Amino acid sequence: MVTTSCLAFLALLGFASAGSCPNAPRSDGRCGPDFSNAGCVAGSSYPCCSKYGWCGNGAGYCDTNICDSASASSCPNAARPDNRCGLDFGNAGCVAGSNYPCCSKYGWCGNGAGYCDTNICGIVSTPVPTSGGSCPNAARSDGRCGPDFGNAGCVAGSNYPCCSKYGWCGNGAGYCDNNICGTSPQSTPGPTPSNGVPILVNLAVPSHVGVDCPGIQSRWPTGTYFCGSPKPPGSNVYTPSCDQKMTVSYQGKSVTCVISFQAAGVGLTTGAYVELAPEAYAVLTGSTYGGQFTGATCTGVCNVARN
Predict the structure, then answer these.
(1) What does residue 206 show for φ and ψ, rounded to 5 degrees?
(2) I need a surface site. Which of 92, 223, 259, 270 has the fewest CB within 10 A?
(3) Which residues are CB-neighbours of 214 under 8 A, at least 6 positions away?
(4) 41: Cβ–Cβ under 8 A, 6 or more apart, which residues?
(5) How far apart are CA 127 and CA 296, in angstroms?
(6) pLDDT digits (tens, 9 = 90+) for 276-307
């Protein structure tokens, strides 16, 4: 039984939701700055707020509790050659005065919006470029856009007319609803492609990303959508299809994700199955939380449910 004195001791260690998330907890378990500074229920089974905005417990929650007023204000250790930074990467910092001086909440060194405005290492050495207004320069061939990429715009009227806060041209939720270039109108969703196989879609637990595919987040750029898939066919196959892609389409919207962990799907379906990380789930549904749904189709690596 957990006593009041035990809870107080845990709170002193930073294992309670307090400090910078002063508002009442939400019924859906979301928390932190992206969810109106909602906190978590101290003393409950889910007392701490992860960097992805979910209340939970243990590693990934209470060790990096973003609602804890005692959270780290600096990253004192030397910068890494792979540009990873922050608490999850040995408190590595970024190189002040370089092109990538600030650490994002996702653990990447970079510059501009999403890095220096939310610098988790706490030492902002470069002013944040203005992201409002417009991105007047020509679109790039690699699909990057916005202040961090020479104010490159996106091609209006194309399939990817809007610039996300992560500097990628795209469409739908995460792109046209917070278009940092401000000038590309959201295009009307087209019909769901008729090709592809039916697939059952579920919401992934953020901490599952990379569990079965070590280092995958360092191999793909910031803003990549990740997902989980059953193992591919074969009697001696023991790992998922790491680093391979699938495109999931639903009600006129689609998202391409990189397979980063195993999601069995057994007992839920006998067909194709995927678990989308919250950011990818939101592209299809407009929300980063919810349950499983049918009616989607898949192209690419669409593995069938299996243990």
Answers:
(1) -55, -35
(2) 270
(3) none
(4) 17, 25, 47, 55
(5) 43
(6) 999 999 999 888 888 899 999 999 889 998 87
Q: How far apart are CA 159 and CA 219, in angstroms?
A: 26
| 3-class secondary structure, 23 | strand
Please provide the distance, in angstroms rounded to a whole number, between the alpha carbons at the two ends of the chain: 36
pLDDT tens for residues 28-49?
A: 888 887 787 788 877 677 777 8
Please give the model's pTM, rounded to 2 decimal places.
0.41
Burial of 238 per CB tally in 10 Å (0-12, 13-18, 19+)? exposed
Establish whether domains 17-68 and 72-123 are of one fold.
yes
Tokens linked to 104: 């994002």
- How far is the C-alpha of 45 from the C-alpha of 17, rounded, in Å? 12
- The CA distances from residue 155 to 135, 139, 174, in Å, are 11, 6, 17
- Would you tell me how many other CB atoms lie within 10 Å of the CB of residue 43? 15
**In this structure, are residues 20 and 72 in contact, taking their beta carbons and an 8 Å threshold?**
no
**Selection from 287, 286, 291, 289 nearest residue 268 by Cα:** 291
Q: Fold for 72-123, please state it.
A: Wheat Germ Agglutinin (Isolectin 2); domain 1 (3.30.60)
Domain ranges of the chain: 17-68, 72-123, 126-182
State in words which class domain 17-68 has. alpha beta
Contact 161, 155 (CB under 8 A): yes
Strand-pair category, 162-163 with 169-170: antiparallel
